[in-house]
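Moderator note: this is an archived Q&A kept for reference. The question asked for a predicted structure of one protein chain; the sequence and the answer are reproduced below.
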Amino acid sequence: RYSDGDRYEGEFNENFKYNGHGILESKSGGYFKGIWMNGKPVNGISLNPDGSKYEGEFNEDGNYNGRGTYYYKDGRKLEGFWKNGRQLCQNCATTYAPELETDCDFKEEC
């Protein structure tokens, strides 16, 4: 456990950065479980303190990037391809959710 209350369990690289499989639990109630590379999440599940979660790929900044699915705590979901935390249009969402930024204006389900 770290001084800020977060806890990491998993593999490290020679520079003591998260690397390989691991789980980071935050004191706020969220966590990331999956694959890390040089201290950054690459692929896995990110659970937010509000109960929503994202399952998929991430970029080096920790944003949703690549193939993934965002799940709302009420069961709605958005699936498809993401870039820098934004869902791309060419792959349609199963449910429109205006709270998430997209690269186009959805007017109805695809």
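Archived answer notes: Residues 41 and 62 are 6 Å apart (CA to CA).
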